[in-house]
Design brief:
alpha/beta, 4-stranded mixed β-sheet, 2 helices, 8 strands
Length: about 130
């Protein structure tokens, strides 16, 4: 099984497109300002933005891994993107910074290295 995409709601798809392009995602589909799909710059993951007129509070967080979180954080701050938290080392051995997209979806930029899929407490698969 392979995760195809995560979709987030938006009241203004063009505004969301500008935000996610500023984060570094590549726009690959844009349909009548009601839907957009992005390819992540590394790997096969995609993110979709779907127009909705309802306010949705799902509690979903979208995580994007970056190689050098502090450098990406500084670059994005310089472009005017505001973060809720600065890069911080977490007890689960990831370094994270959080922000919101224009429609209140939580975005977490993180750097985890080998601890992303192989933390010291990983379950034994034998």
């Amino acid at each position: 099984m392979n995760l195809n995409q995560v979709s987030v709601p938006s009241h203004d798809v063009p505004e969301s497109i500008a935000f996610y392009k500023a984060l570094g995602l590549e726009l690959i589909v844009h349909t009548h300002d009601r839907y957009a799909r992005f390819q992540c710059p590394v790997g096969d993951s995609t993110l979709s933005v779907e127009w909705t007129e309802q306010v949705i509070r799902s509690g979903v967080k979208v995580y994007f891994e970056v190689a050098d979180l502090d450098r990406v954080y500084e670059r994005l701050c310089a472009t005017g993107i505001e973060f809720e938290t600065k890069p911080k080392d977490q007890p689960w051995l990831w370094r994270e910074a959080q922000l919101k997209d224009p429609f209140n979806n939580t975005i977490v930029l993180f750097s985890a290295g080998k601890n992303r899929k192989d933390p010291p407490w990983k379950l034994d698969q034998s």
